Amino acid sequence: MAELTRPRPARGTHSASRAGSPADGGTRLPTVGPGVPGHVLSHASGGRDQWSDPMETPPADPEQGLLDCLGEVLDPELPISLVDLGLIYAARLDDDGTARIDLTFTATACPCMAFIREDITDRLEQEPWVESVAIREVWDPPWTRDRITERGRRQLGELGVGV
Amino acid sequence: MTGAEALSGGPPAGDPDLTSPGLEGSPDALRAAMGRLLLTLADTKRILGLRYSDWLLGAPAIEAGIAASSMAQDEWGHARLLYATLGDFGEDPRVLEHERDAANWTSLEVLDGPFEDWAQFVGRSLVVDAALAIALEGLKAGLYAPIDGRLAKMLAEEEFHRSLLEAWCTRLASGSTEARGRLGAAITGAFPAALRWVGPGDGPHARLREAGLTSGAPTLRAALVGRVRPFVRSLGLDLPGPASLDDDWDGTRARGAGQPDDDVVERARGDRNRALFVE
Q1: Which residues in chain B touch residue A141, judged by CB atoms under 8 angstroms apart?
Q2: Which residue of B has its CA nearest to A114?
Q3: Tens of pLDDT, residues B193-234
Q4: In this predicted model, what pLDDT tens digit does every residue of B224-249 receive, in sequence order?
Q5: Is the Cα dihedral A35, A37, A42, A47 positive or negative?
Q6: Would an 8 Å CB–CB cutoff place B74 in contact with chain A?
Q7: Is residue B81 within 8 angstroms of chain A, CB to CB?
Q8: What phi and psi, each to the nearest 5 degrees, are found at residue A89?
Q9: Paired sense of beta strands A88-93 and A98-103, if any
Q10: A62 in a structural domain
């Protein structure tokens, strides 16, 4: 199956490429309710105006570190993270700093595939311990709404989206 | 050795058809047969998506047009996944998708022209979608991993198409005499070609079956009849009897004679946007 690998750009060249960010004078948005993070109001691709700063030290558990980062990346259409939407099937870090992500989509013709790949890559490449990102597109098992996490369901529910 | 292993080029020990020298039954022939099947599936889905898209704003109800839009997207998503596998067979997916003449497209012939009305949309699509699903399910029984990993998602999406098409068939069949007549004509007009297409039973398909990569032609044909006939009969309609179409079978393209119209192929290839392609 095709695996897309993109070389790492220079640090600091990829932030908020399609919207304003705190660094550009944007403002972090307030929490809108219990369990609903402020970034659900973000209009920046992937919620990047609300992404955390890079970790100061590499995570003790690289897989969890990758998932924590991806937990900040919003789906372009639903205001929850790719992790809570259940699109991330695997995340691991090679010894050479390559972050390998198994990614699925809600539909075979998802119109946001390119955005999602770009948002994942940009978020992970913020981290000094990630040298490059390799995304593998997977379809087995197929995504269904059952893969949305409890937190994701709660966030969607509070925004009036039933799943 | 599995069919998938045979496709990888390893020695197909234990299968006399595959170890025999020469083109017949060789791994190369098996790969060619699988490539033909996948291209036929991809082309049919690509053209079907365009036929769906013709009705986004012409359906009897706006909700039906929205459904047609989603179905069109699904078919193109499936085509994308299928074309991508053809790189494993020595083909350039970009050339296949964007540079072939209409005469070399392998889509099912009942899609060569546009759906003339909504009855043709639902009647022909009921048959073609069923044939596509049966062909995919036939592959599911096989062992070609790149396809196996994509089938479940495609089949899940096809189930939504089936629900919509059956609902509209039911609605038209219970409507006016004219609506019922047009629906019946659309179904019976499409079925013989779909039946032959789903289970061609020629040499390449036989090689796939022998290698365990797909179900046999009789099984696939029976599955299509078993899926469509009970529903059609529940509408008070029926399928046509067996028809001999062998005279115009094109084994290279795994379809009947003719070709999709130039307009739809130009749209499928993206001719007008060729200068705008980006990597």
Answers
A1: 152
A2: B279
A3: 999 999 998 889 999 888 888 899 999 999 999 999 999 999
A4: 999 999 999 999 999 997 777 667 89
A5: negative
A6: yes
A7: yes
A8: -90, -25
A9: antiparallel
A10: yes
